[in-house]
Amino acid sequence: MLGRTYATQDCSAARALEVVGERWSLMIIRHALFRGITRFGEFQRSLGIARNILAARLDHFVEEGLMERQPDPTGSPYHDYVLTEKGRELQPVIVALTHWGDRWVAPGDPPVILRHARCGGAVHQQTVCRDCGQPVAADAVEAHPTARQASQP
C-alpha cells in the first residue's frame, strides 16, 4: 500500500501528487476553474464533500500556493478562495483527465463539453513538441534523466 508521501521517489509527477493527488483535490480545482466557485459553502454544496475534508484541502491549497484566501469584497465575514497562477496552471491536467475519462471510463455522451469561451469551439488537449511544434503520440515520448538524477547512486 502506498504511503501518504512519495519521499523516496525522485520524480516531479510524484511530487505533484503530494500536492494535488488526494481524491477531492482536482475536483475542487475543477470547480474553481470552470464554475468560478470561490466560497467554502459553494464548494461544499456543489461537491457534497464533508466540511472537515474541504477545510483541510482549502488550507492545504493556500499553504501550497494554489489558492489565496481573500476577504469578501462586500465586507461579509466570509472569504473567497481564489486560484493563483500556480493553481490555474492545473487546467491542462484537468482537461486531459476529463478527455481520458470521456473516452475510457464513461464513453458515449460526455456530461460536459469544454468549449473555448471566445469562439465556442471544443477544447482539445494535445501533447506537442516544444521544438518542432508537431503533435507527439504517447509511444513517441522518451524519458531522459537529467544530470542530477544520472549522478545519483
Automatic annotation (TrEMBL):
Domain HTH hxlR-type residues, every copy: 11-109
Superkingdom of source: Bacteria
Keyword Membrane attached: no
Keyword flag Ion transport: no
A Pfam family this chain is assigned to: HxlR
Swiss-Prot/TrEMBL keywords: DNA-binding, Transcription, Transcription regulation
Classification via InterPro entries: HTH_HxlR, WH-like_DNA-bd_sf, WH_DNA-bd_sf
Protein name as it appears in the record: Helix-turn-helix domain-containing protein
